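The data are quoted verbatim for reference:
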Amino acid sequence: MDHVKGELAQSGVKKPRLSAVSSKQGLLAKQRDVQDVSGFHQFEKKFYNEMVHRLKTLSYERAEQLYSRYLKRANDWALLLKSGNEELHQYKKQLIDSSMKAKQAVNVSSFQAVKGYTFQELDEMILFLRQRMTYQMSDLFKEHINVSTVNADSRKELKYQFSEAVQGYVLNVEQYANREMTTLLIRLENKVNDQIRHWLQELLNEIRIWIPHLNDAEIQQSLDINDMEMSFVLSINAEDYIDKVHSKKELFVRQTVKEIKEKMISDTEEVMMHYLQEWKRAISHSLEDKLRQAESAIKSLIKHQSEQDEVRLSKLNDPNELERLKKEITLVRKYHLSSD
């Protein structure tokens, strides 16, 4: 649990809501109708009592925010429709000018800070992963190749045990590396999306000087980089080291195992370094495309929203528009009251 909290803290989640559970044991307890000792029942109660209530609260708050925003805009338009031609003319001029300034702000805005942050984070995370892998290789070697696992008296059996131990080492290194790379992508995705949200908020704060009713929820873009995962395969085998395996005395008393360990870890690091270079190159290319698409989508959506009032201007001369708008406001208020 502490390890998970530490990993989440590094990803920016400072106060996670965690529960230690066993879904398998919890399911068996339900199926057999026996007392649950896995912690799953307590998790269910906590989830429904706290999380579901929180989700409903967030949903309600969001609905209220949208309702208030709509009502203000609708009432502003209703007042505008009731005004004279001079007021309409001035409003049209102001609206066109504001829309133009908003578009100019979008056009000159730079996404470079997000891109620079993304690739700096990627470099640092991969460097940190390589450092952790070095320590992990040493631990895994000692776990799989030791006097308890390679201890046969006959040379043939000793070599067989050694080969099995190396296979175990390789499998565990592969599993650890792939798990850590998956975790790296999750961390990177969270950090980059936070950076995009921060960049967008700063841009919207500037644009709202001219267009205050922009809806950021419809503009927000998130990167999904889970499709960038690759599978690491450690291409070493026992045959590369087995010629040094003659007896357990030579291995563990004369310490030949240290020579084998140094060679095996060095070979593992070389394979891992080459793989990470290729992995990083593939991720960087994919990130370039995804960041370009996110920037383009955000800017297009902002421009689209800034143009909506211009589209509505065409309806100002429609004599039926005010009546339609009044009916719409009445209907929205009715549904809002019925939901309370």
